[in-house]
C-alpha cells in the first residue's frame, strides 16, 4: 500500500506577514499565529504578531499588550490550549537569545516567562514541540557552536526541566525535526556542519536516549524541513539537502519530498503527495510550520520559507495525510 496525502493551497486576504523565512507559526484552534523571520538574510523583519483565520482565510495584525518580544530570526513557537510560547532566536545584532515568552490568545497579552540564567542557554535555529503540558526545546546554534541539549518547560508547574545529554552519536545540530510520538521525544536529522540522517529518541519515563536504525524508503540527509507528529507517525516535508557555499546568505538545494516514519516499525515510507499538482508547495526549507486541523482533519500547515533561487516565499499550504 502506498502512503498518500493531499496538499491544499490556502488563499490569503488581509494584512499578512508576506514573504519571509526563519520565522515561526503555531496554531491555536482554527487560528494560526506567525512571528519573526527575515526577508533579507539575517535581518529580522518586525515584531508584529500576525493571526491567520483558517475559516475566513484572512490575516490581521494582533493588537497586543505586555512584554512584546523584539524582532528576531531562527525563532520557534508552540502552543498548548489558548497559550502560545515563543523561545529563542537571533536579534538584528546577530546575538543569540534565550527568553521564553508566552502569549495569551484570549487576552492578547505577552508575558516574559524566563530569561537570563533560567532555562536553556541562548540559541537560534533550534526546534520546538509540545504535548498537552510541556514545551520541548532541542538543539540549535548556541554562543559556542551547535547544541544537542533537550529541555522542557512545564506549563503547569511553571518551571524548566533539563534532561541528560545524549551520547556522542547525537551531534549538536541546527534545524532538526522534533516531535512527540508515543510518549517519547524524537530527534530526526538536522545539520552539524554536514546534513545528517540519524534518528534518536529520548524516553522521559527512564531518562534514556536511544539511537535507532531506520529502514524502508529512507530520506536523504537534510535539515530545516517541516515536521509534524500525528499518532505514532512522524511526517517530514522538504528541507535543505545540500547546503549553500554561502552559508546562511545562500539558498542551497531544497527537497520537495514528503516522508513518514512509523515509530513502531522504525520504517520510512515516501508519500505520494501530488508532486505535480498546482496545490503542491514544491522544493523549500526554512519554513514556518505547525501541527493543526483543517476541516476537522489533522495535518501540517506550512507557510513561506526559502526557495532554490534564494527568494523568500509567502504562500500557505495545508497537508492532510
Automatic annotation (TrEMBL):
Gene Ontology MF annotations: enzyme regulator activity
The keyword Iron is assigned to this record: yes
Pfam families: Kelch_KLHDC2_KLHL20_DRC7
Gene Ontology CC entries for this record: cytosol; nucleus
Gene Ontology biological process terms from the UniProt entry: glucosinolate metabolic process; nitrile biosynthetic process
InterPro entries: Kelch-typ_b-propeller
Keywords: Iron, Kelch repeat, Repeat
Cofactor: Fe(2+)
Signal peptide coordinates: none
Protein name: Nitrile-specifier protein 5
Organism placement in taxonomy: Eukaryota, Viridiplantae, Streptophyta, Embryophyta, Tracheophyta
Amino acid at each position: 500500500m502506498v502512503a498518500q496525502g493531499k496538499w491544499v493551497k490556502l488563499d490569503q486576504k488581509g494584512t499578512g506577514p508576506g514573504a519571509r523565512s526563519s520565522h515561526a507559526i503555531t496554531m491555536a484552534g482554527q487560528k494560526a499565529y506567525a512571528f519573526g523571520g527575515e526577508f533579507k538574510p539575517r535581518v529580522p523583519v518586525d515584531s508584529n504578531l500576525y493571526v491567520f483565520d483558517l475559516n475566513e482565510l484572512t490575516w490581521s495584525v494582533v493588537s497586543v499588550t505586555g512584554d512584546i518580544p523584539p524582532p528576531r530570526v531562527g525563532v520557534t513557537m508552540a502552543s498548548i490550549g489558548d497559550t502560545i510560547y515563543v523561545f529563542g532566536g537571533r536579534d538584528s545584532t546577530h546575538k543569540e537569545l534565550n527568553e521564553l515568552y508566552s502569549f495569551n490568545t484570549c487576552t492578547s497579552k505577552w508575558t516574559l516567562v524566563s530569561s537570563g540564567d533560567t532555562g536553556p542557554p541562548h540559541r537560534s535555529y533550534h526546534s520546538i514541540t509540545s504535548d498537552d503540558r510541556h514545551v520541548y526545546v532541542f538543539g540549535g546554534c548556541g554562543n559556542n557552536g551547535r547544541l544537542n541539549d533537550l529541555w522542557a518547560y512545564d506549563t503547569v508547574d511553571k518551571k524548566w526541566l533539563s534532561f541528560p545529554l545524549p551520547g556522542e552519536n547525537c551531534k549538536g545540530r541546527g534545524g532538526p525535526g522534533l516531535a512527540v510520538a508515543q510518549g517519547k521525544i524524537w530527534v530526526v536529522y538536522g545539520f552539524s556542519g554536514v546534513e545528517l540522517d540519524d534518528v534518536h529518541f529520548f524516553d522521559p519515563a527512564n531518562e534514556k536516549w536511544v539511537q535507532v536504525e531506520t529502514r524502508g524508503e529512507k530520506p536523504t540527509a537534510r535539515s530545516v524541513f517541516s515536521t509534524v507528529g500525528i499518532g505514532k507517525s512522524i511526517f517530514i516535508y522538504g528541507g535543505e539537502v545540500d547546503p549553500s557555499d554561502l552559508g546562511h546568505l545562500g539558498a542551497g538545494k531544497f527537497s520537495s519530498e514528503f516522508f513518514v516514519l512509523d515509530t513502531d516499525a522504525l520504517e520510512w515510507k515516501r508519500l505520494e503527495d501530488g508532486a505535480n499538482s498546482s496545490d503542491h508547495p514544491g522544493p523549500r526549507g526554512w519554513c514556518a510550520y505547525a501541527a493543526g486541523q483543517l476541516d476537522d482533519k489533522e495535518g501540517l500547515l506550512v507557510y513561506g520559507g526559502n526557495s532554490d533561487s534564494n527568494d523568500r516565499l509567502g504562500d500557505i499550504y495545508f497537508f492532510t495525510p
